[in-house]
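Researcher: Please translate sequence to structure tokens.
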Amino acid sequence: MTLVVARIPYLNTDPFFFKWTYPEASVLEAFPKKLGALAERGAVDAGLLSLVDSWRLEADFEPMRPFGIAVKGAAKSVMLFSKRPPERLDGARIGITDQTSTSVQLLKILMRHDYQVEPRYRMGFRDSDDARLMIGDDALLKQSSGLAGFASVLDLGREWARWTKLPFVFARWMVRRAAPAHFKRELAARLETSLRRYERQKSRFVSDVSRRRSLPEKAVRDYLSGFCFRLGGKEEAAETLFRRFVTRGEARCSC
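Model: Translation complete:
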């Protein structure tokens, strides 16, 4: 029996797949929003699910603790590029990348509760955008080079940490509840092995990733240093707070 492990093709997921070998499982790549839909349709048995999708699908999926992706400050790859400062975005048109499930919720919470503005959100980017939410490797590249015409740049990880004094959890490793017990044990063991290998061999990892993704080694090293791949008490507290906002309906997005 071959089970499907999902992989989000972002740089910040690479440590979980460093020198990955698991012949009994096939790997399927998908961006966060599509991955949530695939998991809902039964096409995925385990993977890093966007945090809000992990809640939405918790009847069928359970967490693979402690594995996940969180930042204690700047995310560097969840960025709002804007033509004006955030406090002046009331009524503004914000284009949203079609890759996101969680980051758009985070943006709405920050806009409403921290900056106290109510922009208008829509999927996709248009010339008339006042601001754009980008995530993943696209955002990582643009946060260093900039986005022409969008002078204000907001890192949503940094903004959440400034506002709440907590880290932010973007994704959790989840596994289908009905999956065989031996698969859950083996997958958890392989994830831990990959992370330990990453921690012991960071120079080799950075070199490999730099060559494969055509990024400077320093950029790779600096970027990944901001992430936590095992979630603890502070991350649980941050997730609880974020979920409280979302489940109150204050972060829902029609886009």
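Researcher: Any highlights?
Model: The longest helix spans residues 181-200.
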